[in-house]
Write a sequence for this structure.
């Protein structure tokens, strides 16, 4: 329990008068501030939730953020039809329930859904392929927003194009709603593998990389210089177990998104907690063995040859 | 000297990069055993509720309190400030505090991410302003007489020190400016 308020009211030291800078020097919505929140979410688990009750379970389990959406991807897959931004009432209900950051999804290219989500004060907008795309050629111009964006990518070129549009976090797409980790592994390996290969290229080869990846040269050069993606790289799409989360982390992801994997399992709360532990201790097999015990049945999932729609193909 | 960075969750990698640039030996701390190998500790920003929970499930609360009692210097940034505080406002009922210094901290005091910002702060002991990044930042709403204010924002302390404990409500690890880490590394062991 937190003890009741003690301590004297704050008074700034009188010898220290230059401290209160004017609002004029304050910057909001800069890349520094937007990418900053992604840094804070590292080593954590972001969980898909469809109700305030689920959001509470997620926060209780140690989620670093929740993704508020109307249906988890597994249900979108079954239901079919057009999947859109969630009802603001539902998003606000979740914002009221938890103290951790709340993210929400907008359709690819649907900048008005993003404007609405920004107006609602969500902490991150996911321009997501899990929803039905609204534009077959253009993604949202994310520079125009104060709220930061996360976007999916299947390869480094796609990741750098999204970053050039202003995305402040990239998540490998995987294949949402399948409970099958194979696509997440493929996309993550593709991105981190090319980052490593670019790091070994000479300056002349970077022009060829930019052409081949269809990505802006300055971003390719930045990757070559730093040896990593310019923004945090998280992993999503098909993770269902603590071992899946640790696998993504060992492959180079800096955090994980778990969607249907938690609330489509038999017993969501202990599974959520175990995935949180596994993400922190991703390199410690003893702890992974401990937290993997007795979690009940994970979501059944589907094989990739059974998936009628591949969401990962959405995005340009 | 070995610097530990609590790596249960959050911006531990960013702190690690600053320490690397200063040539300081750093290790990530995920359990009590790691903690034992260190001479000082950074508790990074991240989600304070997640860190509190993971500190509990990994049996780190008592070792952390012992560490603080031993006088080894500790630097808490943002969520780290919340964990080190005496009291939390706007926290979860089950959220742990280490009571390392006499401050009360209000969580998410500025609003959602839309209201996150950066701005120049004058800091006692630095000869030019420090560009400070505030992400869903907390605010120190009360402090005891033992706590010294080194920088303030809108009349509230943003950087404070009490003995060998240094606390900021902002994120020095994001600013490409290592002066606060240098300040922390220069703090002598207490007691």
């Amino acid at each position: 329990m937190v003890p009741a308020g003690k301590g004297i009211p704050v008074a700034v030291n009188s010898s220290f008068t230059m401290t209160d800078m004017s609002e004029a020097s304050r910057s909001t919505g800069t890349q520094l501030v937007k990418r900053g929140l992604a840094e804070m979410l590292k080593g954590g688990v972001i969980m898909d939730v469809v109700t305030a009750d689920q959001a509470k379970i997620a926060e209780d389990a140690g989620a670093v953020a929740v993704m508020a959406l109307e249906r988890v991807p597994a249900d979108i897959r079954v239901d079919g039809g057009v999947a859109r931004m969630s009802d603001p009432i539902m998003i606000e209900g979740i914002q009221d329930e938890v103290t951790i950051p709340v993210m929400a999804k907008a359709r690819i290219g649907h900048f008005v859904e993003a404007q609405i989500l920004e107006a609602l004060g969500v902490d991150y907008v996911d321009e997501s392929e899990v929803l039905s795309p609204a534009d077959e050629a253009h993604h949202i111009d994310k520079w125009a927003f104060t709220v930061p964006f996360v976007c999916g990518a299947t390869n480094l070129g796609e990741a750098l194009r999204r970053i050039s549009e202003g995305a402040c976090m990239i998540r490998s797409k995987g294949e949402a709603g399948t409970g099958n980790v194979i696509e997440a592994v493929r996309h993550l390996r593709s991105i981190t593998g090319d980052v490593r290969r670019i790091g070994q290229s000479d300056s002349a080869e970077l022009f060829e990389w930019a052409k081949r990846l269809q990505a802006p040269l300055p971003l390719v050069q930045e990757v070559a210089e730093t040896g990593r993606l310019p923004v945090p790289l998280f992993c999503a799409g098909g993770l269902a177990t603590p071992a899946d989360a640790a696998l993504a982390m060992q492959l180079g992801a800096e955090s994980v998104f778990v969607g249907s994997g938690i609330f489509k399992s038999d017993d969501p709360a202990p599974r959520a907690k175990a995935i949180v532990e596994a993400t922190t201790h991703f390199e410690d097999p003893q702890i992974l063995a401990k937290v993997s015990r007795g979690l009940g049945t994970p979501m059944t999932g589907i094989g990739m040859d059974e998936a009628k729609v591949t969401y990962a193909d959405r995005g340009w | 000297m070995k610097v530990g960075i609590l790596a249960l969750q959050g911006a531990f990698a960013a702190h690690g990069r600053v320490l690397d640039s200063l040539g300081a030996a750093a290790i990530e701390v995920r359990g009590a055993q790691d903690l034992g190998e260190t001479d000082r500790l950074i508790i990074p920003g991240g989600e304070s509720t997640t860190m509190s929970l993971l500190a509990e499930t990994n049996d780190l609360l008592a070792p952390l309190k012992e560490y603080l009692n031993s006088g080894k210097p500790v630097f808490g940034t943002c969520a780290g400030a919340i964990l080190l505080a005496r009291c939390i406002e706007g926290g979860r009922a089950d959220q742990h505090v280490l009571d390392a210094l006499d401050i009360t901290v209000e969580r998410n005091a500025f609003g959602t991410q839309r209201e996150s910002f950066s701005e120049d702060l004058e800091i006692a002991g630095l000869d030019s302003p420090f560009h400070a990044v505030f992400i869903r930042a907390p605010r120190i709403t009360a402090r005891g007489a033992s706590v010294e204010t080194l920088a303030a924002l809108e009349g509230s302390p943003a950087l404070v020190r009490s003995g060998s404990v240094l606390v900021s409500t902002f994120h020095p690890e994001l600013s490409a400016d290592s002066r606060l880490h240098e300040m922390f590394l220069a703090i002598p062991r207490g007691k």
